[in-house]
Each structure stands twice: as C-alpha cells, then as structure tokens.
Amino acid sequence: MTVGVVGLGYVGLPLVVEFAEADHDVVAVDVSDFRVGALTRGESYIEDIPSERLQAVLGKITASPSYEPLADVDAVVICVPTPLTSNREPDLGPLESSATALARVLRRDQLIILESTTFPGTTRDLLAPILATSGLIAGSDFALAFSPERVDPGRTDYTLRNTPKVVGGLTERCGDRAVELYGEVCDHIVRVSTPEVAELTKLHENIFRSVNIAMVNEMAMLCERMGIDIWEVVDAASTKPYGFMRFEPGPGMGGHCLPVDPFYLSWQARKFDMTTRFIELAGEMNQHAPYHSSDRVVKALNDVGKPVKGSKIAILGVSYKAGVGDIRESPALKIIELLRGMGGEIVYADEYVPELKAFGLNAHSASDAVAGCDVAVIVTVHPGIDHQALLADTPVVVDLRGALRQVRIAR
C-alpha cells in the first residue's frame, strides 16, 4: 500500500514513520521547505520521533512540497493545522487550500481521511464539496472519513500504536476502508457511525479537560485569598478512588488543542441558536490565567518593595508542557509579554527552547538565568531540574506549578 500524508507536524510526521515502519511506501507533503528538507535528510524536528528512527525507514519515504505525487497513492491522510483567527473563530484556510490542491490530483477509488481537529460537519459539508470539484463524488467514487488525532507530544506510554483510534466514515464502505488502513498502524480501532460523531468526539475530549483546568485554576485563585494551600487540597481530593479526576492549577493552557478546540464547538453551536456557557466561561477563565500569573509576579515584587520596571525576571520553562520544546499557545509567552510591557528585564531558561524569536531572547542555563535575578517564575517544570536547590538563594520565587510544594518562598 502507498500512503500519502499531508502536513508534517506533530501529527503528520509520526504517521509517516509508523506507516513506513509497517512496510508501506509513504508520500509526505508539506508546504514548508524546512520540513520537506529535514525529512529528506532524515533529520527529525519533533521530540517524539528520534532522527535515528526516521533514518531507519527513510528509503520508504518520499517528501515533497507538491501534491502531484499523491495521484499515485492508495490513501491520503490530511493533518494540516486548524487554528483560530484573531477573533477566536475557526480558520479553515489551511484545510481549504489543502483540499483544493488535493482535488486537482484526486483519482477514483482513493481513500481520503481528515485528522485535523475541527467542528462537526466539516468533513461532509466542507471537505467533500471541495474534493467534488475533481468530478468525483465522496462515498461513491472515492472513500472519505474522519479520524481525530490523539497526539500528546512528549508522551511515551501512549503512542499512535496503542492509543485507541476513533474512525467515522461518510458511508459504511468508507468506514471499512479507513479501519483497514489504520489497522496497519493502530492496535485498537473504535468505529463510530459518522464523521460528525468522530469530529465531536475529539472536541468533547479536549473541552472536558479545558473546563476542568479552568475550574481548578479558579479554585486556586480562591485558595490564594482564603490562605489555603490548593496543592494540599488537590492531593487530598485525589485520594478518593472514584468520582474524582485530578487536574492541577497552572499559568494557563497551551499546545495545539486545548486553547483552540473549545472555540470550534462554541462557534458552531451559535449556528444552532445555542450558547455553550460552560465552554465559553472555561475559555475566558483559561485565557485569563496568564494575566493572573503576571499579577502574582507584580505582587511578589511589590511585597519586597521593588517595581517590575528594571527588575530582572527569570522565567523558568517557556514551552507549554514539560519535556517538549513546543511553544504553541504557551502561557509563558503571554506572561513574558505582559511583564516586559511593564518594564521588566526578562531572561529565560529552557533546554528545549533555544530561542524566542518573537522577543529577541536566547535561552540561558537555569543557573545563569536565576543568578542575580530579582524574582524567578516557575512556568514549566521540565524533568531533571531540582528547583529547590536551584532557587535556594533566590530572593523571590513565584511558583506557578507547585514545584516547591514544601518550600513556600512566595505564594
């Protein structure tokens, strides 16, 4: 079987490697010359795929910026970004562009699968009509399905292979074709009745997390005012063996899913004359979290008689989660923007993120970053760092992740 993958980011590149390891020829397409070039050289640019693993199957992979080679594949998996506009509305521009290009080379009996996260109805009402400009009809001339990506960057216990794969076909036969394809690289397939069910499944998963993260962050703010240790509360509640799932407070959400996906559904819900109050309130709460975090830094400095302006502020960790270099929607970026806007002199340490081009900053070692700083702010807790030892002589610390649960330097 020959498989095409469009979009070579955190979702697409692992798919390319998995299909190649399953002894299938893979055509990998991306508009980024950097990604195509790196893949051609066998150089991985994401943490989940070591370059050595990529190089081992490089002979099975053809990387290209052109859609033309997709005319000869049996199946195409679309993994392009689905971001938000500046007004927090779905931006389907990348998907529409990809579908338009694919329609020019689409041929009879191919299987097309969309993995990009989107609102219910996108596969049927947007993707299928664009592909129909080829003269071929989805469900009869070619197969069409939706299967949401479930990638958690940096995670090793659950991978593409052992994470259950949800699949919804436009027709019964479309679903059969999609299940057959994913059976090559996934151990457990979860078949659902329609693409809409599969599309909403992904949104439901992430909205569940978004709402609970917002709730625990609101609890943390209340605990600050009440003088109660939120971490002790969470630890104690987590001892309940049923009816409770642990979520931890922090500086806000980041990554390619949680800050974006809820808005896709709330936007879609308005078409049905419904306001999704829980979803939108959680979104507001999570967007506010970095502002609250920066306010905590201002207060911590004020408590020792220092203004933000002119103070050296060391940001520890700028990626959106531990153990990865992904800064998409990272709350650290908003915190840096806010504190720098007040005149703070920002330095940062993050072994996974060598530079922040948007701010003109380069990473320091953790010890250099905190040396002589007025306040250190723990934003992301990367593995292998002893924050207690690192910050033993730091005058003020704002711990946004509970890394110093037993050492309360600053609340």
CATH superfamily of the largest domain: NAD(P)-binding Rossmann-like Domain
Please state the CA-atom Rg, rounded to the nearest Å: 23 Å
Mean pLDDT: 94
Tell me the strand order in the biggest sheet: 3-2-1-4-5-6-7-8
**Got a strand count?**
14
How much helix, percentage-wise, in residues? Answer: 25-40%
Low-pLDDT stretches: 407-411
Sketch the topology as an H/E string, one letter per element: EHEHHEEHEHEEHEHHHHEHEEEHEHE
Per the principal axes of the C-alpha atoms, what is the gross shape? globular
End-to-end distance: 57 Å
Helices, by number, come to: 13
| Proportion of residues in β-strands | 5-15%
Give the class-level CATH name of the largest domain.
Alpha Beta
Count up the domains: 2
Largest sheet: 8 strands, mixed
Helix and strand content put the structural class at: alpha/beta
Gross CATH architecture of the largest domain: 3-Layer(aba) Sandwich
